[in-house]
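Recall from the previous lesson that a structure prediction takes nothing but the amino acid sequence as input. Here we apply that procedure to PAS domain-containing protein from Microbaculum marinum. The sequence below is the only information supplied.
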Amino acid sequence: MRIPSSRHWAAKIEIGASFGAHVDVDCLPVGVGLLDNEFRFRRFNRAYADYLTANTRYSAGEAIGLSYFGCIDGARAKAEPLMRHVLASGTPYELRREELAIRVGDRTVVTYWDGQISPVIERSGHVSGILLVCTEITELRSEQPRQDCRAPLTFKEEQVAALICEGLTSKEIADRLCLTKAAIDARRNVIRKKLGISGSQANLYGCLKQLN
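The prediction returns the following tokens.
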């Protein structure tokens, strides 16, 4: 089974004069953020807003217009060289289990990310900003030893897993497969148990995409 990654969703987002003109980014199961050439937040989707709320002292509304590095304390040393390279080269940079230490108050939290940093290229060829498409996999890394011993998914469970990775809700999956929502929720629970994440806060989408 091929599980779509953050890089898969990045490829689905067409960058032009308007951001997200062809994709409803709020419906994507990954964080999507748009920065200008000065690395200030211009826009982000709900998933990215959740990342900001969890990892910074700013609300989603307060972050608009702020510098990425001012908002995400401690990220400059690691992230700025990558972003400047993307702006200068006009080519994307893939994040693969990238470590990012973030200062939250008086403590430092180590987080891990998959995704892609891409240039926003206008029709004129001018690079006008940065597109971030990412998934936090911090909790997934802590669960990895148990995942190595996971039981295989059945055909029906793989059907559900594939639709989860398309960003569908339990109700939408139930409608697609002509089943009840309760049946889908039960299969989701079985999938979580087989992945070794039952009872944890690990993101099911993030865990499934590691199976690709």
